[in-house]
Amino acid sequence: MDAITLLRNDHKTVEQLFKRFEKAGDRAYAEKRQIVDRIIEELSIHAVIEEQVFYPVARATVPGTEDIALESLEEHHIVKWLLSELDELEPTHERFDAKVTVLMENVRHHVEEEETEFFPKVRNELGRSALAELGEAMADAKKSAPTHPHPRSPDTPPGNALIGAVAGVVDRVGDNISGIAQGGVSAAQDLIARILHNDKPKVSPTGSSITRNKAKNVRRAASDATDGVQETARSVKTGISTTAKAASAGAKGTVTSAKKSVRATSTTAKRATTTTGRTAKTASKRTAATAKRSASKTAASARGAR
After folding, report:
1. Per-residue DSSP letter, 206
2. Looking at residue 187, what is its pLDDT?
3. CA-CA distance, 212 to 208, in Å (whole number)?
4. What is the predicted pLDDT for the residue at 201?
5. Closest Cα partner for 36 from 99, 94, 78?
6. Cα angle vertex 169, ends 166, 171, to 5°?
7. Which of the 8 DSSP states describes residue 182?
8. Interaxial angle between packed helices 209-226 and 187-196, expressed in degrees from 0 to 180 and rounded to the nearest 10
9. Please, where are the H alpha helices in 114-207?
10. Whether the bond into 158 is cis, omega within 30 of 0
11. Residue 140 CB: number of other CB atoms within 10 A?
12. What per-residue confidence (pLDDT) applies to 294?
């Protein structure tokens, strides 16, 4: 199954769940809870495989999709926040139905834009072989993708692959789903493994160099979108070490600055004391001289008055 067919099938599944919710009775709380739980799972997995594999590949290989992909990421962000709130909200809450309604409106708008603007560009550019390769990677990604929304987590590589792998395991353990490890950690890692094992891309019967190049570009883009996982881990470790060194250097610098400041203050104080003493001594001499002259004048005036 190619990538776009897979995503369209996801859209159909979610739309069927939306219609089931709309037909549920006002007081069908248990049914609504069950439907919304399915919606949360389906949309959480769908968003992850698009963010980890489809969007990065499209941005790297299909001209004119950068803005569409970025807008789609923002729409995902809004949807994931709504899903996270519904995950915690009781179906009897007065805002439950309202939140589901807003969720459906946002998702339907997102689906329409993807299917009418985004998908045609990707299909026209990549072709059958590359899309089949991409679809296989995305199908593998579903096996280990998180089943609950994580709106605070990164949604672009390499951070989303690293965090998504951990979140997927945690979610599936919580959901009590068996065979967690069978799907691998992520589609990106599976795709990289195929590349490392020298698997050649399938090409169309024409065997054209254009088709082969597109398949290679898709593989390269998918690899580039996710090969930062190990680098991220190294960066975290390096960052901790650098931060510790910086903190140590900062502390030493602070102590040194403090010592210099104390010495400077001491020197300034000594200079000020010396200057003040000299000033006081000079002022005292001047005052004495002035008093002596004043006394002489007073005496002279007294003699003249006689």
Report:
1. T
2. 46
3. 7
4. 38
5. 99
6. 105
7. G
8. 130
9. 119-142, 159-174, 187-196
10. yes
11. 21
12. 56
Q: What is the amino acid identity at position 174?
A: G
**What residue has token string 């004119």?**
64
pTM over cut 0.85: no
Q: What is the pLDDT of residue 178?
A: 41
- What does pLDDT average to in each consecutive run of 10 residues of the chain (306 residues)? 96 98 95 97 97 96 95 97 97 97 98 96 95 96 93 86 77 59 42 43 39 57 48 40 43 45 48 50 54 56 54
Q: Token pair of 305, please?
A: 């008055």
Q: Return the DSSP state at 114.
A: I
Contact 160, 189 (CB under 8 A): no
Residue 154 structure tokens: 């990164």
Q: Distance between CA 207 and CA 200 in Å, rounded? A: 13
Would you give the DSSP letter of residue 180? G
d(CA 226, CA 154): 13
**Phi, psi (5° rounding) for residue 90?**
-75, 145
CB 146 within 8 A of CB 167: yes
| C-beta of residue 130 within 8 angstroms of C-beta of residue 201 | yes
- The answer to whether 34 and 20 have CB atoms below 8 angstroms apart is no
**Calpha distance 39→174 (Å, rounded):** 17
Residue 300: per-residue pLDDT: 58
Phi, psi for residue 267 in degrees, rounded to 5: -60, -45
**pLDDT for residue 184:** 40
Residue 239: both structure tokens together: 């960052």
In single-letter form, the type of residue at position 31 comes to: E
pLDDT confidence of residue 295: 53
